[in-house]
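Key result, reporting period 2: structure in, sequence out.
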């Protein structure tokens, strides 16, 4: 009869996510995870067979926090909005996980359920094939892009100056040369990340709703441009 496991899978996930949130991706390793758990790297190999498995632990831990109402939803746009907002809120809470999610999602089974739910909601708009792929990429880019832009941009908490100082610097620019920068900086005073995400998502969904089927058949059947490569 074998010895009982010292760590549960949930404990490994929680420790890996704590480490990533605190140290960033560069601080996530077998050795650092072992230290976080109060054990040795050799012992950790009994639970995590290779370095990539540490990344998958983090992705699993993050995706476990993604939650949206099960529906049914009145329209496909309502369903996409619910899923995308839940995903955005989660990745925004764990920004260091975004690169791991983007580069490891095809190897993370925990990601499949979220992706399938988003694709199924988008498919309700009548899309399939290349049109569904493009819509999926657009929503995914908005979710991760806005989260990264907010948390790494000039108004982030990590910036060298406060958000108020940054906005004031933009508003002090010459009005005859930079009227739109000044206008945007002024709007940022009363704006929140949640408001901006919701408005951006509404704008994108409105565009998708107005997008007709492409003339000349499915874009997926057209020859790929030279130099392109497969990705998902």
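The corresponding designed sequence is given below.
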């Amino acid at each position: 009869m074998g010895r009982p496991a010292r760590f549960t899978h949930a404990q490994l996930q929680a420790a890996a996510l704590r480490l990533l949130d605190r140290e960033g991706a560069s601080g996530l390793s077998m050795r650092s995870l072992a230290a976080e758990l109060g054990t040795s790297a050799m012992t950790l190999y009994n639970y995590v067979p290779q370095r990539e498995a540490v990344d998958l632990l983090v992705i699993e831990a993050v995706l476990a926090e993604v939650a949206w109402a099960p529906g049914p939803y009145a329209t496909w746009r309502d369903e996409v909005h619910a899923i995308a907002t839940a995903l955005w809120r989660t990745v925004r809470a764990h920004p260091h996980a975004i690169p791991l999610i983007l580069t490891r999602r095809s190897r993370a089974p925990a990601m499949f359920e979220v992706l399938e739910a988003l694709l199924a909601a988008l498919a309700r708009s009548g899309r399939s094939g290349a049109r569904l792929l493009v819509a999926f990429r657009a929503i995914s880019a908005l979710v991760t892009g806005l989260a990264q832009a907010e948390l790494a941009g000039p108004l982030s908490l990590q910036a060298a100056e406060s958000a108020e100082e940054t906005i004031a610097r933009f508003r002090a620019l010459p009005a005859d040369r930079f009227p739109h920068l000044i206008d945007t900086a002024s709007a940022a005073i009363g704006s929140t990340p949640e408001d901006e995400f919701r408005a951006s998502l509404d704008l994108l969904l409105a565009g998708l709703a107005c997008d007709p089927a492409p003339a000349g058949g499915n874009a997926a059947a057209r020859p790929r441009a030279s130099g392109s490569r497969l990705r998902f």
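The CA atoms of residues 169 and 185 lie 9 Å apart. The chain has a mean pLDDT of 85. This case is discussed further under Risks and Mitigation.
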